[in-house]
């Protein structure tokens, strides 16, 4: 399945362009064994001309047949190539970026490739319950691997100390897996949290 790159996409989002669109499908909580609960998820990756993708994932618990039972959660965030921030970049807050993008050509983006032939990326994701994650990782073709650098929790948030996520494009479908460490001790290791198989719907 060919990947279409939007004509208005800023150059540094081209490595992430295969994510853009609406995705929907079913998944399983935990390790995905016979007793694991089912869920339905709708994911969107959008862009607005700035050098990041906006991410939103809404999930619902379902029965075995896929009928929605109740809302599960919503998460939202931003995905971008990891690079030094320059004077031409926007922020903090409402400070506008220069009209001309910091990276203006494919050659300038290619210069960011890492020693493994991919691109370093950063992803920030916010959750209900006062939890925010900052991930660093790599995108290499249609594959992404992320590991938390920081998990920020509010004063009444549940214990959650670390996570990894992997994403892959397989036959035009988006597959992902999420492993987490809870109980306040990342040293105890990660456990399977959820996984899903999503089809592109627009």
Automatic annotation (TrEMBL):
Heme b binds at residues 158, 193. Binds 1 heme b group per subunit, that coordinates a highly solvent-exposed Fe(III) atom. SUPFAM superfamilies: Lipocalins (SSF50814). Residues 12-200 form the THAP4-like heme-binding domain. It catalyses: peroxynitrite = nitrate. InterPro entries: Calycin, Nb(III)_bact/plant, Nitrobindin, THAP4-like_heme-bd. Pathway: Nitrogen metabolism. Its EC number is 5.99.-.-. One of its GO terms (molecular function) is peroxynitrite isomerase activity. A motif (GXWXGXG) lies at residues 21-27. It is an enzyme of class 5 (isomerase). Keywords: Heme, Iron, Isomerase, Metal-binding. CDD domains: lipocalin_heme-bd-THAP4-like. Its cofactor is heme b. Heme-binding protein able to scavenge peroxynitrite and to protect free L-tyrosine against peroxynitrite-mediated nitration, by acting as a peroxynitrite isomerase that converts peroxynitrite to nitrate. Therefore, this protein likely plays a role in peroxynitrite sensing and in the detoxification of reactive nitrogen and oxygen species (RNS and ROS, respectively). Is able to bind nitric oxide (NO) in vitro, but may act as a sensor of peroxynitrite levels in vivo. Belongs to the nitrobindin family. Forms a 10-stranded antiparallel beta-barrel structure able to accommodate a hydrophobic ligand in its interior. In fact, this fold hosts the heme group, which is located in a wide surface cleft. This is Peroxynitrite isomerase. It comes from Pseudarthrobacter enclensis.
